[in-house]
Design goal:
The structure is a homodimer. By secondary structure, chain A is mainly alpha-helical. Chain A has six helices and three strands, in the order H-H-E-H-H-E-E-H-H. Chain A has a three-stranded antiparallel sheet with strand order 1-3-2. In chain A, helix 2 packs across helix 4 and helix 5 packs across helix 6. The first copy, chain A, is globular, with a radius of gyration of 17 Å. The N and C termini of chain A lie far apart (34 Å). At the A-B interface, helix 1, helix 5 and helix 6 of A face helix 1, helix 5 and helix 6 of B. The first copy, chain A, binds a DNA duplex through helix 4 and strand 3.
DNA sequence: TCAAGTTAGTTCGAGATGCTGACCATCGTC
DNA sequence: GACGATGGTCAGCATCTCGAACTAACTTGA
């Protein structure tokens, strides 16, 4: 059955990647860390990012983003700091534990990517990355 | 920022596809239908599929699959019939309402795919499909 | 300059999702 | 026919997500 729709074809490897990365994180002691939290955390910029921006980027409501950031903050992955330019807003920043988790996650991603690259061949792998990046232009509402 | 990891690059268009398809279904009156249900329902074969197989294919526990099939059955999308070859097992089959929903979903998928094809160009689009199908060989635990 | 509308973020309550554990019925095997 | 394996369900709990309603701070216009 190769007539699976592209939605499912995208979802299957996504799911596989997620499982591998979270297994690796759990192995290294980052066992209190969920996919939902990761989807928000991945969108935090180096200078910190506002709740509202985070919510838009992750495509969840402000409430959900707030809830997930609560958890991330309690676990020490991020901190909330006041935004100097707007007293209503707060900048979410990566905290020490978050910075410690990043290389673990990055290593797991790199491992999976290299397996995929080996399976597809370098040329097709680069094309896949290129096509997905291009698709992002019309499917990522955030940018 | 094009250094997004491939997991996120897969997830973003997946999410976009999902949103479009569910909006189309809701427009046509299939408003009681959730992504989780769809992930199970997509794996039902033409001759019906067992709960256990469904659970494996959708990568959820038997319990979760059972729960989702309950809902699908209550909404009239599927039926459970006895498996003639094993009295313990039950075959989940697409029911009338499920069959009615399929063309609506298929049309929405086709529309999104044609937009993506137009954005990428036919050649790259076919390569993307091919790469994703190939990736499925090593990332779909079911098959 | 200050009232009115907008924007950033939170709290609350509820439904959806998905897990583990415990269980029953049936199958296959020895 | 007894016993372990398999197909499936029920119960209980944690997580994810949303809509509604709210507070505080910003912006705009007369």
């Amino acid at each position: 059955m190769d007539e699976l729709n592209v939605g499912l074809l995208l979802f299957i490897p996504y799911r596989a990647m997620e499982a591998r990365v979270f297994a690796a994180l759990a192995d290294e002691g980052f066992d209190d860390f969920t996919p939902a939290q990761a989807r928000v955390m991945q969108r935090i910029g180096p200078e910190g990012t506002r709740m509202t921006e985070l919510a838009e980027a992750a495509q969840v409501t402000k409430q959900t983003a707030s809830f997930l950031v609560d958890q991330l903050e309690r676990s020490g992955y991020v901190t909330r700091t006041p935004d100097p330019s707007d007293a209503r807003a707060r900048l979410v920043r990566i905290a020490d534990r978050g910075r410690a988790a990043q290389p673990v996650a990055a290593a797991a991603v790199a491992e999976v990517e290299s397996e995929w690259r080996a399976h597809l061949g370098v040329r097709d792998w680069e094309r896949l990355r290129g096509a997905l990046s291009s698709l992002r232009e019309i499917t990522d509402p955030y940018r």
